[in-house]
């Protein structure tokens, strides 16, 4: 079969120290999964750092490097043409919704195949390399420095190269197997690179991704550089090495005869990661069960013969050295936690058999000034090589991605990718099957059609509608726009969703993370202004939390404020306003305990009052009067029903283009505002009447039709004529 050559090359940002002796250049090529080949090419030389722990001048290296091109590829001496070409592509590129992030195209087999070649000795010290599979990043993308774990290879992000490479300038640290650079010297080496990058782009953050041992290195560097804008991401950091479950076994490893050492990597592979999680990383989760398990079996079988390379990655002398390095690294980092000012995100595994990572994440949360946790209960120590953990997805969902010092919800937003959309569909499939959502829209001529063809494709577009109980309508709405029109609807949401107040006790990836991942942003005039400027499709609920958390007997009642401000803002940008109604909450669930009921329950009522006192500073309706200002946040008591169906109707688009001057007048703006509100109410009245004519309103009838005729999204509904 034909093989595809992928390659990695040395980054021009970390050029050679020309005063030092040039070491041999190594080119590595090896077979990877899928009958493809992978090649790794980098300069086996001193790169922007330390030889045997001796620091050199970055400034002098940079000046000299400017006079020399780097050898890449097949031995040709390159020029700046390739870099200019990459920069041009970066400037022209823009991520569209459902872009291909490449997640799932590589697996731990690729890691092992590349490891087999990269460990070949070349006499070189630690160095940086940039995987070519990362591709050219978007313009103004921040630097990401990956600091590896105990293996030192720098291949720990192999599952994430393509996705991270789109939005970061990725540099991976490689520590040769025979290298014995002490921890403090490694800290200085990384620090020198960090300061060089900061001097090149002082207004741009620098990301440090530390895996296990690399986590100690990242924290140490952050502690020594509190004035540099850093984002530190830790994957099961080895700061907990002193409490490792393996501590009693360490003396045995030292005494183990050399001839038995080949068995150690096999034992460590079981301790450090979940083999099944690793084997499923490149399997399509939407495959039928037989196909899924057949591919899983093949992956597991393919992994076994490759594990032998681990004994070469960590030979006995290197293993003993790395264990000493871990001990000194943990002590160094832990003694300096108080000095860290960087933004920190900790990824902790629940099945880490090497370190107490869950407890360590909580300790770091208490010890660091600006720290967040995401806990993955089913993953092992090598979390970045396992299925179910897309690093870029986590960075995006926690609002950790930014290009400047402060996060911008519009400028820094990255749309969901194909793999993220597929994962969301799997997670939300129950809602589609349970509620069978069906959508209608109104064309310019007033004709109602099934689907979203009546909603304009070109923005700015403002969708204004009714907020159903608990926001049940949100997920199907966003999914349908993505699936049918490849348009991401940006929802304007309550600021509480973006605060530490909604961080769950267990710190797992939550619904709130998914909401942020799909473009929700805090309600504010400035954010609405930015969205209109970028010609976005915006989702606005004037009734807000009061509408979504309504009381008994208030279903399908609008709680809109008196101010028509969004009308005037829309007119300023010539946005098209599309009013819409949605019904079906009474067919899906019954509200049995509302806010008033819950307040009367001892202890629970006190907790709700206390929580809402904490939310008070985030109340977007502060200063208003009436029910619209009563935006208490709570979880109502719902009783699921044998479900009917959720129906949407998007009304006739209302043009504001050319009406800016007219709508500056408050009375005219108020008139249009009331017309929009009336259209929303009329849409709901229409749907409540027509749903009685739907022969497939019941889940029973929809399920039978689906089995016999068509997928769920093609199940017929009422006659709209």
TrEMBL record:
One of its GO terms (molecular function) is hydrolase activity. The lineage of its organism: Eukaryota, Viridiplantae, Streptophyta, Embryophyta, Tracheophyta. Residues 180-387 form the AB hydrolase-1 domain. It comes from the Eukaryota. It comes from Abeliophyllum distichum. GO terms for biological process: triglyceride biosynthetic process. Belongs to the diacylglycerol acyltransferase family. This is Acyltransferase-like protein. Keywords: Acyltransferase, Transferase. Pfam families: Abhydrolase_1 (PF00561), DAGAT (PF03982). The keyword Transferase applies. Gene3D superfamilies: alpha/beta hydrolase. PANTHER family: MONOACYLGLYCEROL_DIACYLGLYCEROL O-ACYLTRANSFERASE, TRANSMEMBRANE PROTEIN 68. CDD domains: LPLAT_MGAT-like.
């Amino acid at each position: 079969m034909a093989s595809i050559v992928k390659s990695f090359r040395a980054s021009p940002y970390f050029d050679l120290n020309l005063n030092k002796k040039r070491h041999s250049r190594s080119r590595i090529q090896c077979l990877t999964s899928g009958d493809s080949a992978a090649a790794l090419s980098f300069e086996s030389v001193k790169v922007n750092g330390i030889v045997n722990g001796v620091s050199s001048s970055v400034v002098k290296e940079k000046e000299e490097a400017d006079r020399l091109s780097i050898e890449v590829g097949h031995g040709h001496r390159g020029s700046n043409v390739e870099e200019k070409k990459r920069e041009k592509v970066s400037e022209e590129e823009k991520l569209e919704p459902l872009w291909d992030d490449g997640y799932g195209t590589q697996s731990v087999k690729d890691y092992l195949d590349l490891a087999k070649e990269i460990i070949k000795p070349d006499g070189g010290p630690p160095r940086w390399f940039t995987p070519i599979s990362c591709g050219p990043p978007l313009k103004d993308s921040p630097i990401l420095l990956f600091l590896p774990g105990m293996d030192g290879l720098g291949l720990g992000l192999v599952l994430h190269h393509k996705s991270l490479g789109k939005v970061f300038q990725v540099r991976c640290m490689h520590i040769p197997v025979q290298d014995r650079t002490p921890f403090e010297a490694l800290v200085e080496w990384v620090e020198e690179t960090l300061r060089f990058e900061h001097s090149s782009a002082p207004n741009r953050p620098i990301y440090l991704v530390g895996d296990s041992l690399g986590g100690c290195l990242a924290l140490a560097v952050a502690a020594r550089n509190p004035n540099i804008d850093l984002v530190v991401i830790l994957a099961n950091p080895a700061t907990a090495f002193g409490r490792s479950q393996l501590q009693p076994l360490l003396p045995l490893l030292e005494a183990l005869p050399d001839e038995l050492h080949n068995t150690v990597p096999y034992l460590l592979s079981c301790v450090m990661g979940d083999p099944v999680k690793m084997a499923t990383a490149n399997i399509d989760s939407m495959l039928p069960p037989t196909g899924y398990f057949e591919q899983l079996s093949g992956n597991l079988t393919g992994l076994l013969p490759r594990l032998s390379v681990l004994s070469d990655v960590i030979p006995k002398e290197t293993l003993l050295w790395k264990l000493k390095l871990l001990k000194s690294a943990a002590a160094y980092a832990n003694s300096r936690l108080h000095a860290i000012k960087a933004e920190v995100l900790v990824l902790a595994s629940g099945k880490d058999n090497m370190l107490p990572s869950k407890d360590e994440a909580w300790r770091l949360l208490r010890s660091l000034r600006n720290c967040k946790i995401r806990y993955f209960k089913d993953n092992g120590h090598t979390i970045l090589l396992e299925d179910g953990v897309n690093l870029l997805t986590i960075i995006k969902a926690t609002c950790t991605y930014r290009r400047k010092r402060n996060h911008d919800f519009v400028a820094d937003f990255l749309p969901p990718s194909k793999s993220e959309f597929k994962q969301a569909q799997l997670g939300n499939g129950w809602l589609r099957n349970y509620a069978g959502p069906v959508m209608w829209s109104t064309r310019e001529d007033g004709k109602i059609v099934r689907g979203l063809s009546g909603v304009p494709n070109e923005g700015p577009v403002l969708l204004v509608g009714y907020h159903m109980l608990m926001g049940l309508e949100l997920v199907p709405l966003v999914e349908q726009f993505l699936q049918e029109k490849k348009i991401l609807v940006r929802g304007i949401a309550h600021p509480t969703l973006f605060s530490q107040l909604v961080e769950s006790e267990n710190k797992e990836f939550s619904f709130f993370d998914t909401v942020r991942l799909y473009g929700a942003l805090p309600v504010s005039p400035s954010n609405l202004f930015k969205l209109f400027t970028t010609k976005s499709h915006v989702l606005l609920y004037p009734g807000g939390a009061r509408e979504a958390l309504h009381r008994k007997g208030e279903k399908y009642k609008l709680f809109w404020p008196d101010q028509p401000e969004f009308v005037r803002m829309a007119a300023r940008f010539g946005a098209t306003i599309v009013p819409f109604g949605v019904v079906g909450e009474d067919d899906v669930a019954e509200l049995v305990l509302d806010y008033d009921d819950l307040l009367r329950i001892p202890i629970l009522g006190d907790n709700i009052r206390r929580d809402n006192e904490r939310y008070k500073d985030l109340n977007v309706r502060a200063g208003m009067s009436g029910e619209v200002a009563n935006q208490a946040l709570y979880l109502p008591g719902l009783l699921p029903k044998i479900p009917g169906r959720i129906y949407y109707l998007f009304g006739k688009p209302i043009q504001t283009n050319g009406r800016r001057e007219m709508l500056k007048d408050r009375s005219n703006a108020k008139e249009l505002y009331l017309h929009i509100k009336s259209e929303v109410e009329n849409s709901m009245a229409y749907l409540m009447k027509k749903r009685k004519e739907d022969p497939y309103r019941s889940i029973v009838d929809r399920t039978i039709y689906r089995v016999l005729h068509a997928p769920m999204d093609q199940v017929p509904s009422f006659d709209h004529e």
